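Action item from last week, closing it out:
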Amino acid sequence: MLAAAVRLTVERETTDIAVTDITDAADVSRKLLYLHFADRDGLLVAAAADLLARELLPQVDEPTDDLRAQVLVLARHFAGHRVFYRAMLTGPCAFAMSRALNDLFGSLNRIFVREQYAGLDERTVDDLAAFFIGGASLLLTEWLVDGADPLRPEDLADRLLRVASVLRAASPEPPGDHLP
């Protein structure tokens, strides 16, 4: 069902797809879809999460000190699936899709916040990470939806890294790292 949902979204360039079209394409019953997912939008968000988990996360999880290379992996994934993600981020399940992206990348942002802003309580770390991922998600969405064809992953990477460098420069010095 997940693959059928992605395939139909790409073919039609919309998430406005009848449940029967998805179940017919997956050769399953409507009942099965509703047993696993609350509705069509739940299926579509699950399909996006599955695509991210299968294709992007294994590459992002590979350890590297090259932040630009890691951001380029992310940008290339989204550029390669632009039609699908554009439909997801502009259709009726856009809020659920944005929330799924925020949840997915939130843990990475919490690591960044802890490293850059030492000594914050966990609630503030979570709030600041959510604030940062909201901005990064907006940049990603604008790039996917409004970016010129063909998308250049380097453009998104440059934007995200430029913002990250400003945030790093604006972070307070960690305790003990300054001279008296």
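Closing note: DSSP finds nine helices and no strands in the chain.
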